[in-house]
């Protein structure tokens, strides 16, 4: 998330809630490698029997994982989406992003279409029950919007405990007519997994650019798990507008910009101290 700093420097929350001070085009980078998690039933069985889809993976990562697990040419699973007859909500307009539910799926007799259908069917069971529908309605949104918020929460929260607070920041910003300014949406727009957001990135023309556009992105930006979904429909009460992970396990939420700046200063002090010790 980018705060409205008047100086040349920009304070942004990177994905997973970590903050970076980016001055005059400096870049903060990180990586998230999309490697399918395959499990086998026995030590002598070398062929994988199941595929684990982690929380927060994007549809593109899921497609790649299925291709690899089934030993298919790259792009096969992506091409199968149109023919899979997935039971998606009308708001999705055929795009399964957000509905490829993270779980473990058996590979015996699997095809791309069967695996994708199993993921969407699982999401339907998780998302379309009365508790989720009631929670979405209580927060003046539909289920698809709740899934979209959950995907942002999944991408931005540093821990499960922080998810409800991150969701509240999203709601508070929306209610105040503030742009979300989430770097996770920029990364989605650019189709990358590394965290490398510059001022130029925040000016890209994309409906997923939450620096330039108001409201939620048009689709989820990943596939959230049950914890993120619960947070999206039951955000923790609070007036927070900013958050920053000062150090691992210490994420601070505030509605006061001056306090947020002090938290950022502490983060930078910790970061510089760690760099000095490492060097």
Describe the structure in your own words.
With 279 residues, the protein is α+β, with helices and mostly antiparallel strands. The protein folds into 2 domains: 9-30 and 141-255, no CATH class; 37-127, no CATH class. The chain is 38% helix and 11% strand. It contains 9 helices and 7 strands; from the N terminus they run ββββααβααααααββα. The protein has helices at residues 59-69, 76-80, 112-127, 130-138, 143-156, 163-175, 183-190, 226-233, 257-278; strands spanning 9-13, 19-23, 37-39, 50-52, 104-106, 242-247, 250-254. The longest helix has 22 residues, at 257-278. The two termini are 29 Å apart.
Protein topology:
Blueprint: E1 9-13, E2 19-23, E3 37-39, E4 50-52, H1 59-69, H2 76-80, E5 104-106, H3 112-127, H4 130-138, H5 143-156, H6 163-175, H7 183-190, H8 226-233, E6 242-247, E7 250-254, H9 257-278
Antiparallel strand pairs: 1-2, 3-4, 4-5, 6-7
Helix pairs in contact: 4-8, 5-6, 5-8, 6-8
Euclidean distance between termini CA atoms: 29 Å
Shape: globular
Strand arrangement in the largest pleated sheet: 3-4-5
The number of distinct β-strands equals 7
Secondary structure class reads: alpha+beta
Strand coverage percent: 5-15%
Largest sheet geometry:
3 strands, antiparallel
- Order of H and E elements: EEEEHHEHHHHHHEEH
Question: Mean pLDDT, as a whole number?
Answer: 85
Poorly predicted spans: 1-34
Helix content: 25-40%
Radius of gyration computed on alpha carbons: 20 Å
In total, the number of domains comes to: 2
Helix count, per DSSP? 9
């Amino acid at each position: 998330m980018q705060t409205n700093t008047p100086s040349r420097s920009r304070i942004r929350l990177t994905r997973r809630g970590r903050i970076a001070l980016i001055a005059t085009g400096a870049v903060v980078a990180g990586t998230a490698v999309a490697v399918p998690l395959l499990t086998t039933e026995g030590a002598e069985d070398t062929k994988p029997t199941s595929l684990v889809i982690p929380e927060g993976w994007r549809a593109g990562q899921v497609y790649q994982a299925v291709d690899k697990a089934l030993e298919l040419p790259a792009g096969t699973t992506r091409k199968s989406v149109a023919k899979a007859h997935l039971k998606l909500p009308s708001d999705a307009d055929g795009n399964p992003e957000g509905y490829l539910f993270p779980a473990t799926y058996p590979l015996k007799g699997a095809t791309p279409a069967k695996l994708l259908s199993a993921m969407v069917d699982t999401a339907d069971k998780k998302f379309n029950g009365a508790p989720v529908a009631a929670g979405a309605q209580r927060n003046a949104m539909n289920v698809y919007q709740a899934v979209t918020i959950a995907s942002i929460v999944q991408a931005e929260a540093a821990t499960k405990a922080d998810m409800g607070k991150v969701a509240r920041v999203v709601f508070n910003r929306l209610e105040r007519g503030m742009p979300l300014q989430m770097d996770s949406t920029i990364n989605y727009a650019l189709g990358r997994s590394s965290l490398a957001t510059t001022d130029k990135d925040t000016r890209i023309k994309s409906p997923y650019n939450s620096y330039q556009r108001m409201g939620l992105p048009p689709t989820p930006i990943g596939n959230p798990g049950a914890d993120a979904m619960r947070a999206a429909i039951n955000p923790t009460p609070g007036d927070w507008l900013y958050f920053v992970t000062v150090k691992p396990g210490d994420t601070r939420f505030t509605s006061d910009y001056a306090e947020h700046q002090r938290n950022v200063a502490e983060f930078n002090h910790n970061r510089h101290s760690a760099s000095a010790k490492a060097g």
